[in-house]
Design a protein that fits this description.
Largest sheet: none
Strand content: under 5%
Distance between the termini: 77 Å
Radius of gyration: 31 Å
Structural class: mainly alpha
């Protein structure tokens, strides 16, 4: 009857300690990235809210004598301004940077409100959609897959709307213009993904450099403490041995 021998090797506590340190550093890096994304999102909200408010005031002033003809525009700008104000107030809460559900909900609300308001101006939508998709990829605190999904939905929504209201009799010119506009909108996703990849790499390198500097500093401090302990342990023994040496002489 064959005997099976199982050898058990105890795990090195230093390896488990290093793994725990790596996990803590990875969590710290994620918090660092979340903080950066949150600050970018707040900046984007402030800039967009300011532009919407200025545009709303301009429409009311320029069309003060015929406000009834601009009810749709004023209503859409008012709704967008209100939504942006609510999201901005929520993002300024102390717990907002660590609350992933709030970041996702705020990003969705901002994208839906701005996207709907942009699609209402069909003939002028490509450039605002370009800026919105760039903001989705580079400034919103959401995952890359969610940003891609949101940009794809915006692109398909504009494509469907443009095909739904295409003019009759000018189909060749319309399709040529539509292809150029879709190329512009899709390029926004490409630029946003490229910028995001470069930014994440730069953040990783910055974090790694900071970590290396801190580790070297801690190592130097530990070596200095060890040298001081060694000196404190050696000097008293030498001083205590001096009187004995004098007696012998």
């Amino acid at each position: 009857m064959a005997l099976i021998t199982i050898h058990w090797y105890p795990q090195d506590p230093r390896n488990s300690q290093e793994e725990g340190t790596e996990l803590e550093l990875e969590a710290l890096y994620r918090r660092y990235c979340v903080r950066l994304k949150h600050s970018l999102f707040v900046s984007a909200l402030c800039a967009t809210l300011f532009c919407c408010f200025v545009l709303l005031c301009a429409v009311c002033i320029l069309h003060s004598h015929e406000l009834s003809s601009q009810v749709k525009t004023i209503a859409s700008l008012s709704v967008i301004t209100f939504v942006l104000s609510i999201v901005l107030c929520l993002t300024l809460l102390p717990v907002a940077p660590e609350w992933e559900a709030l970041a996702l909900a705020g990003s969705l609300l901002v994208t839906v409100s701005l996207g709907a308001g942009t699609l209402m101006a069909t003939h002028h939508a490509p450039l605002p959609l370009f800026a919105l998709i760039l903001m989705v990829h580079t400034m919103m605190p959401i995952a890359r897959s969610i940003a891609l999904s949101m940009s794809a939905v915006l692109t398909l929504a504009y494509l469907g709307l443009a095909l739904g209201i295409r003019p009759e009799g000018e189909e060749t010119q319309f399709y040529q213009q539509l292809v150029c506009e879709l190329a512009l909108i899709i390029s926004a996703s490409g630029i946003g993904l490229y910028y995001r990849a470069l930014t994440e790499r730069a953040h990783r390198n910055t974090f790694a450099g900071t970590r290396t500097c801190l580790e070297q500093r801690v190592k130097l401090e530990c070596e200095r403490e060890q040298q001081e302990r060694l000196l404190l342990s050696v000097i008293p023994a030498y001083i205590a041995a001096e009187p004995r040496a004098c007696k012998v002489l």
